[in-house]
Amino acid sequence: MHMEWKSFSRRLLVAAAGLLLLPAGHEAMAASLGNANLTVTASVTSYVSIAFSGTNVSSGTAGNSSDSFTGTATLAFGSFNYGSSTTSTGATVTTGSSLGTCASNCIEVSQPVTLTVTAYDLNSTGYTISASLATADTTNGWALGTTSQVLSATGTTIAGPGQGGSFAYNTAEPLTVYLAVPQANGSSAPTSISNTIDMVLTAQ
Amino acid sequence: MRACKLRQLGIVAAILATGTCASLAAQSSSGTLNVVLQNGSGLQMVLNSDSSGVTLGNAGTSSATLGFGTVGAYGTLATNVTRTNQTNTFTVSTFFDVDVAESGLSSTSYTLAATLSSTAPTGLTVQIDSVTLSTTSATISTSGSYGTNVRHTLSVVVSTAASGSGGPTTGTQLSSTINLVATSN
């Protein structure tokens, strides 16, 4: 009986010691710190933006490079007369044309346009351009970049300054638009000329 | 002689004790046991979704996830994710809440610090409240209030360079873990 009490007493002492130690240890461990982890995830996708600029050019739009998209702009040549050096909007007018699309006298109107393609997170060193007319024009001649790059309803490759005829991202690339209008004696002057140049940009 | 007296006293004591037990058998006795529970002091931090932020995974715990989804310089973003475009970078941001509870402390505020568990993926910079995070602890705030959701802005600055030129790997999920530590002031 005495031994049992002694044993119980020892256990009690141990338990008491534990009670004393546990709060003290607990307090020391978590005295002033709280921790948390926040795992952040994201998936980055590529984009490009297209912007046309220049005199008589409206602003373009931006789109997703991974989808089919269209950047649009409008170039207004204004009105012009035979013998004038500029159009009503300031585009250059030249008598005669080097496009080779006129059988007789031509008036050639030209206007520099700047194309800027900005790449975002895109693994590409440059892009190429293929241009075509949305509507075939058997009367007037159209060219882009140089007068030798005559446009038709099928695609024409537009040579760029980079390797393989590519154009550079994040760079303002000049692309002059040429329009050759034939002037024939006795024929009535066209009231207006309109067309759309479709430019397909392909990342290299 | 002395031993004999002690033995006699022991016998007397035993008799008294026996008699006492017998005489008190029908009576009650009482005692007092004092039990003391000492509440450990410390801080507990949980992460919660903000009403204007993306919904956290495991919200209300100390180990949460925050997904920005697919991000790009243009295009649609996930709900409650905003974007600003800068030269050569764009930044996506959202809100999350930190709730720090204190117990047994006389502290009235806490300091919040953050560390990345490892270097951020190439092309990405992680920020909380515009403080850029790294594997070295950075102080986010020094006056956090206990017992309430404190809103913080989590931002990821994304380089627009191509991968291999300092930009991020595209088309795959990138991940970074932030270790947050609240210290009582």
What does this 3D model show about the protein?
The complex is a heterodimer of chains A (204) and B (185). In chain A, strands 2, 3, 4, 5, 7 and 9 form a 6-stranded antiparallel beta sheet that branches. A 3-stranded antiparallel beta sheet of chain A has the order 8-6-10, with no helix packed on it. Chain A contains 1 helix and 10 strands, in the order αββββββββββ. Chain A has 204 residues and is mainly beta. Chain B is built from 1 helix and 10 strands. In chain B, the strands form 2 sheets. In chain B, strands 1, 3, 4, 6, 7 and 9 form a 6-stranded antiparallel beta sheet that branches. Chain B has a 3-stranded antiparallel beta sheet with strand order 8-5-10, with no helix packed on it. In chain B, β6 (124-128) and β7 form a beta hairpin. The model of chain B is unreliable at 1-24 (pLDDT under 50). Chains A and B meet through α1, β1 and β3 of A and β1, β2, β4, β9 and β10 of B. β1 of chain A pairs antiparallel with β10 (173-184) of chain B, so a sheet runs across the interface.
Give the amount of beta strand of chain B, in percent.
35-45%
Sheet with the most strands of chain A? 6 strands, antiparallel
Morphology of chain A: elongated
Please report the distance between the alpha carbons of the first and last residues of chain A. Answer: 95 Å
Radius of gyration of chain A from CA coordinates: 37 Å
How many β-strands of chain B, per DSSP?
10
SSE string of chain A? HEEEEEEEEEE
Indicate the radius of gyration of chain B in whole angstroms. Answer: 32 Å
